[in-house]
Structures are given as structure tokens and as C-alpha cells.
């Protein structure tokens, strides 16, 4: 519930000519590795430096603050706000030292306190009251900072729960959000999701010669399509339930896995470890997720023999109920 992390608040005015200095503690396994700063909004590389010694330092200038992430020896590192000023990281990877990153820490502390209060509640009424406090606080901080990276990051966390029309109406009123590539991508993904929702016909795709249409309607059965990845914990937790559905309905149901955002070797290992017996299309990457507007996995879709999508984005008991209802 309290999923907001690495956020900030209240932009502070600094001279754009002032330099930034980002100090990253070195470790033995990073010695000699390349470290990068990327713009978290558009994925562009902003700066790079070779890790040497106990402290690696990025230095430069930036016209305005941006949401950023460290890439350390090819692996994702901490998120932070790149702005002119001195920025350091504590042992937990939290940035501090510059205005936005310092307020970011304060905001995180406040959210953590609300989270502890929520966990100590003894009744549903108390939980609802604390959660309302959480939502109110978060909205206030987003509204205060909607024109800087802090507001953008908060908005991106809340935007996934918005209906497409609600999202587009909000963005239309905020010029700063209209400049964000991530926001534009989310709007487009929502449109694609709406166009491929329940009641729509499935959209085909081809991954190295294997097509979704090769499996839809096969033997006159319904097709359960599981978009997943080996590194995704929730994806792995859904596998036993899918096995149960297939075992109970093998005369009416086929299952197809589609591995997205994953390495082929990792997918193949997971197939073996999880004892997945149904066919899996490997190395699909973002092709089907772009088509279907999938922003999170697992995304499980049930397609009728005539190609109509009859269930989407359900898991656990909700997925089981949809499958059983369709098969009846």
C-alpha cells in the first residue's frame, strides 16, 4: 500500500550555473566498472565515470532537476533527483545533501511513519482513517510539486490506478506533465489497454516465427495467456494456480506462456525449475506488452475460441472465477 519510495517535495531555487557533485561510495566489486547516470524520464544517459577507489564522483551542470537513476556495472542502482549541488548516498542508497533530495528524505520518513501507524491499527475503521490520511498527504505533496521531478514521480505512482479518461484530463491541465516522456507513454499504453480489453478481439504478434494466432482457438478450446518473466515474484506465484486450472479443465482449456522483459536463458531455467509443461514463447520482450498496453506483470488473459478476450488482468481467486464462468 505504501509503495512510494525515493520521492521528494518542494523545489528549491538554485543557480543553474552551479555544478552538481554526485558522490557514490565505491566497493570492491565495482572497482574498474563504469557507472552511469540516466534520466529516469526518457532513459537518456546523462553522465558516466569509471569507479576507482573508495569514492566515485560525477561532476557537471544541469539546466533543471531531473529524476535520475544510477546504473552500476550494468545493474540498476539507486533512484534520486539530479540537481545542481552536492549529492551523497547513505548505506541504504538514499540520496541526501541537495535541496530536493533532502526534502525527499523527509517525505519518505513521513510516509514510513504513516505506514507504521497503519500497521498498528486494530480495526478496519482505523485503517481506513489512516489510509485516507496517507492519500491526502500524498496528494498535497504531489500538487505542491507537480512542476518538478518530485511531483512527476509521485504522479507516476498514482497514475497507474487512474482510468484512461481521468489520466488524460489531469495531464491536460498540467503543462509540466505534458513534457514527460513517461507520462506520454503511460497515456498511450492506457489507450492500447482499453482497445484490447474484455470484449475486444485479440491482436496477433509474431516472435521469431511463433504467433499468438497459432494457439488461439486450437482444438476448439479457450486459451489462457500468461505474460510473465522469470525474475517476477508474483508471476512465479501464479504458476501453481494456472496448473490447477489446466488440470481441472484440460478438455476445454489450453495455456500459453509469453516471456517478456527477460533473458532467454533465465526464462528457460525458470521453466525447468517451475516445471512448466505448457508451451512458452521466448524472448518476446516488449512487443506484446506494447500491443496490449501491459505496464505490469503477470498479465493473464483468457481468449475464447472465436478470438474474443473474455478476461484480463485477473489473478488468484478472481482469475479462477473468470475461467470457470467462461468454461461453463
General description of the model:
The structure is a single chain. The two termini are 35 Å apart. Mean pLDDT is 91; it is low at 1-16. This protein has 328 residues and is an alpha+beta fold. The radius of gyration is 23 Å and the shape is globular. A hairpin with a 2-residue loop joins strand 9 and strand 10 (210-211). It has helices at residues 99-119, 124-144, 149-159, 164-172, 175-178, 181-195, 233-248, 264-273, 287-292, 316-327; strands at 20-25, 34-39, 45-50, 55-60, 66-72, 75-82, 85-89, 95-96, 206-207, 210-211, 222-228, 253-259, 280-281, 299-303, 309-312. The longest helix has 21 residues, at 99-119. The chain has 10 helices and 15 strands. The protein has a 5-stranded mixed sheet, covered by helices on one side. A 4-stranded mixed sheet has the order 4-1-7-8, covered by helices on one side. 38% of the residues lie in helices and 23% in strands.
Write the layout of secondary structure elements.
Elements: E1 20-25, E2 34-39, E3 45-50, E4 55-60, E5 66-72, E6 75-82, E7 85-89, E8 95-96, H1 99-119, H2 124-144, H3 149-159, H4 164-172, H5 175-178, H6 181-195, E9 206-207, E10 210-211, E11 222-228, H7 233-248, E12 253-259, H8 264-273, E13 280-281, H9 287-292, E14 299-303, E15 309-312, H10 316-327
Parallel strand pairs: 1-7, 11-12, 12-13
Antiparallel strand pairs: 1-4, 2-3, 2-5, 5-6, 7-8, 9-10, 11-14, 14-15
Helix pairs in contact: 1-2, 2-3, 4-6
Amino acid at each position: 500500500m505504501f509503495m512510494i519510495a525515493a520521492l521528494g517535495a518542494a523545489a528549491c531555487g538554485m543557480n543553474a550555473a552551479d555544478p552538481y557533485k554526485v558522490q557514490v561510495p565505491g566497493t570492491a566489486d565495482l572497482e574498474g566498472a563504469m557507472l552511469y547516470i540516466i534520466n529516469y524520464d526518457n532513459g537518456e544517459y546523462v553522465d558516466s565515470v569509471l569507479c576507482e577507489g573508495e569514492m566515485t564522483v560525477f561532476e557537471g551542470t544541469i539546466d533543471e532537476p531531473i529524476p535520475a537513476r544510477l546504473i552500476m556495472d550494468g545493474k540498476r542502482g539507486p533512484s534520486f533527483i539530479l540537481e545542481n549541488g552536492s549529492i551523497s548516498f547513505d548505506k541504504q542508497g538514499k540520496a541526501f545533501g541537495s535541496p530536493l533530495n533532502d526534502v525527499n528524505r523527509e517525505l519518505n520518513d513521513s510516509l514510513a511513519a504513516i505506514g507504521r501507524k497503519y500497521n498498528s491499527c486494530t480495526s478496519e475503521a482505523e485503517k481506513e482513517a489512516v489510509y485516507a490520511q496517507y492519500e491526502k498527504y500524498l496528494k498535497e505533496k504531489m500538487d505542491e510539486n507537480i512542476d518538478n521531478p518530485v511531483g512527476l514521480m509521485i504522479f507516476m505512482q498514482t497514475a497507474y490506478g487512474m482510468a484512461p479518461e481521468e489520466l488524460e484530463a489531469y495531464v491536460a491541465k498540467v503543462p509540466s506533465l505534458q513534457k514527460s516522456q513517461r507520462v506520454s507513454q503511460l497515456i498511450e499504453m492506457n489507450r492500447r489497454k482499453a482497445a484490447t480489453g474484455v470484449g475486444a478481439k485479440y491482436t496477433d504478434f509474431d516472435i521469431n516465427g511463433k504467433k499468438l494466432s497459432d494457439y488461439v482457438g486450437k482444438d476448439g478450446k479457450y486459451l489462457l495467456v500468461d505474460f510473465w518473466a522469470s525474475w517476477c515474484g508474483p508471476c512465479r506465484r501464479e504458476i501453481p494456480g494456472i496448473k490447477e486450472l489446466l488440470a481441472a479443465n484440460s478438455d476445454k482449456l489450453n495455456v500459453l506462456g509469453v516471456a517478456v522483459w527477460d533473458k532467454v536463458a533465465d526464462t528457460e531455467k525458470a521453466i525447468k525449475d517451475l516445471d512448466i509443461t505448457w508451451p512458452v514463447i521466448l524472448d518476446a520482450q516488449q512487443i506484446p506488452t506494447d500491443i496490449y498496453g501491459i505496464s505490469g506483470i503477470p498479465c493473464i488473459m483468457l481468449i475464447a475460441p472465436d478470438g474474443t478476450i473474455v478476461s484480463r488482468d485477473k489473478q488468484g481467486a478472481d482469475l479462477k472465477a473468470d475461467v470457470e464462468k467462461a468454461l461453463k
